[in-house]
Amino acid sequence: MFTYDKEKIKETFKKDIFPVLTERIRNAINKINNNGYVEIEEIRLRTNKPLMVYKNNEGYFVDEFGNLRKDNGLIVYQEEISKIYLLMCDYSLYSMEEDIKQGFLTIKGGHRVGIVGKVVSEAGKIKTIKNISSLNIRIAKEVKGCALELVKNIYFDGVKHTLIVSPPGCGKTTILRDIVRLLSNGVDQINLKGKKVAVVDERSEIACCYMGIPQKDVGIRTDVLDSCPKADGLMMLVRSMSPDVIAVDEIGGIKDADAIMDAINTGVKIISTAHGRDFDEILKRSGIRKLLENNCIDIIVFLSNRHGPGTVENIMRIN
Amino acid sequence: MLKILGAMLIIMSTSAMGYLYSFGYRERVRQLRELQFSLNSLSSEILYASNPLWIAFSNVSKVCTSPFKELFLKISENLKNRSTETLVEAFNLAYNEYKEEFYLEKEDIELLNTFIQGLSSNDTEGHKKNFNIAIKKLESIEKDAEDKRQKNEKLYNYLGVLCGLLIVILLV
Fold this sequence. Notes:
The structure holds two protein chains of two kinds.
Chain A (H helix, E strand, L loop, with lengths): L5 H12 L5 H8 L9 E7 L5 E4 L2 E5 L5 E2 L8 H11 L8 H6 L1 E4 L3 E12 L2 E14 L9 H7 L7 E5 L5 H14 L11 E5 L7 E2 L2 E2 L7 E5 L3 H12 L3 E4 L5 H12 L3 E7 L3 H5 L2 H8 L5 E6 L6 E7 L2
Parallel strand pairs in A: 8-14, 8-15, 9-12, 9-13, 13-14
Antiparallel strand pairs in A: 1-2, 1-7, 2-3, 3-4, 5-6, 6-7, 10-11, 15-16
Chain B lengths: L1 H46 L5 H11 L4 H13 L6 H11 L8 H13 L5 H48 L1
InterPro entries (chain B): Spore_III_AB
Protein name (chain B): Stage III sporulation protein AB
Pfam family, one (chain B): Spore_III_AB
């Protein structure tokens, strides 16, 4: 389970989240009792529906005085959503074109914003999304040291190919980021020297790059290839940066698996994450099954939300 | 002696007035050319580097001359600080601050306004079209401005001197 630094999260909200909201919504969230907003995991805006926040995995409506209610809240208008959307893109929709096609944006500070609306497609390919109707802001929280116990437990005899598995919202990326930081800086307690770590950060969630510069602490020996497709990025990094360890987020398809197997042949260790609840569920993913069949995964760590995000349920050692 | 000095003073001041009046024509042509140049740099910032507008404007401001230098820097700041809700407002806010230094006419400003509005489009194709239209229009506007300058620049210069002479002759 994670323990958060409240002051730091407050700072995050002031710096990254509040500037992209409109005044009405900002005020409502700011007024939540005792700075209660620091516990928010998601802010959901839907056209003509009440403002909603999720904390501790439960949804609440927020009214204009910052009260958390179950019945009703501050209604969010279409114009507000358009304005917020424009602010999030720095008024430059074109610079986010590729992200928008995938249905999300990454704003400064590395917070991911899911978007839905009317999809414009041409010849079966998504061109863009217009008439944005809902936004879901996921607050990225950095929890330094959250993976220390885990790292001590699984890497006491060297780094291994690792897969971190959990349903969404259980802290996969947070754990992965901290593992990257620890491996890169080295862990004295288990005599682990700092490794050259490279990160393929397709969705800018691990290092949370803004203008190419990591906004989160990913360690001293870490190189980040930002917004790069995973399969291409893996090969680029192997060729160009001679890493000891490569970290990637959310693998699944056969293409990812092939790229990982290629990279492993050059001697790097791979640390990755995947969506899933248990072993049976991840076996259904073709890419992961292939990796398991080819002995490309040594350890699987299962996370859950049982005692808050980041609860380690099970550590499975393969071979 | 005093008379001659006075007469010279009158002629000098009216010629200066004529010169200043014709300066507006020259400066407008220069500014229109500068604007074309900045739009070209801006298009590469947007279409190739895919930089967000505040970075694009700040980069362009480094390569162009006054008063566009200050204008673009101000727009960039407005966008960065998110001090306005739309792009056009950010432009207008900045333009009003440096209004005196611009010798652009109403049609030039209208063109600039439409262009800025087009910048909020979200696809590359739209941007290419927007740039093409703006640059083509600017070219024709510049041509007209150049014609006007050729016609009027000398006219106002001579008019200044001649007015001075006329006043002197009338007074003598």
